[in-house]
């Protein structure tokens, strides 16, 4: 398993009239966390796409809302990779507020996609090596 954490503060435009973070924003927060997770593996999405022709479209998204988060509140997003990817890669996410209360949890599954053939493909060897290198670690 690999674990990674980032922090962010919801902007005013990301909240509803009640001051709560709008429900759809959590999917965006998961994306921010996933992108940084992969970057910490040493493979920025831009490199994956431009140099290797691999896309990672979302196949499945599940979100469970537990408590509201608010404008300008420091949120910690913890991302887990619990299985070695094959054709699909699954990230689990938890978001905590400053009081360490879990506000949201979710799961996102993506597919390794060959940009040239427009077909699913196996996780590239260089990606798997990066995952194996960091297995059983917390990414800084």
Characterize the structure shown:
There is one protein chain. A hairpin with a 4-residue loop joins strand 7 and strand 8 (119-120). It is built from three helices and nine strands, in the order βααβββββββαβ. The chain is globular, with a radius of gyration of 16 Å. The chain has helices spanning 25-40, 45-50, 125-134; strands spanning 2-8, 54-55, 58-65, 75-81, 88-96, 102-111, 113-114, 119-120, 137-139. It is an alpha+beta fold and 140 residues long. The mean pLDDT is 95. The chain has a six-stranded mixed beta sheet with strand order 3-6-5-4-1-9, covered by helices on one side. The chain has a three-stranded antiparallel beta sheet with strand order 2-7-8.
Q: How do the strands and helices of this protein lay out in sequence?
A:
Elements lengths: L1 E7 L16 H16 L4 H6 L3 E2 L2 E8 L9 E7 L6 E9 L5 E10 L1 E2 L4 E2 L4 H10 L2 E3 L1
Parallel strand pairs: 1-9
Antiparallel strand pairs: 1-4, 2-7, 3-6, 4-5, 5-6, 7-8
Total count of strands: 9
Count of alpha/pi helices: 3
Largest sheet: 6 strands, mixed
Named at the architecture level, the CATH assignment is Roll
Distance between the termini: 14 Å
Q: What's the rounded overall pLDDT mean?
A: 95
Q: Helix and strand succession?
A: EHHEEEEEEEHE
Q: Largest beta sheet: what is the strand line-up?
A: 3-6-5-4-1-9
- Report the principal-axis shape: globular
CATH hierarchy, class: Alpha Beta
Category from helices, strands and their pairing: alpha+beta
**Can you give the helix content as a percent range?**
10-25%
Strand content: 35-45%
- Going by CATH, the homologous superfamily would be Hotdog Thioesterase
CATH fold assignment: Thiol Ester Dehydrase, Chain A
- Give the low-pLDDT segments: none
Radius of gyration: 16 Å
The number of domains is 1
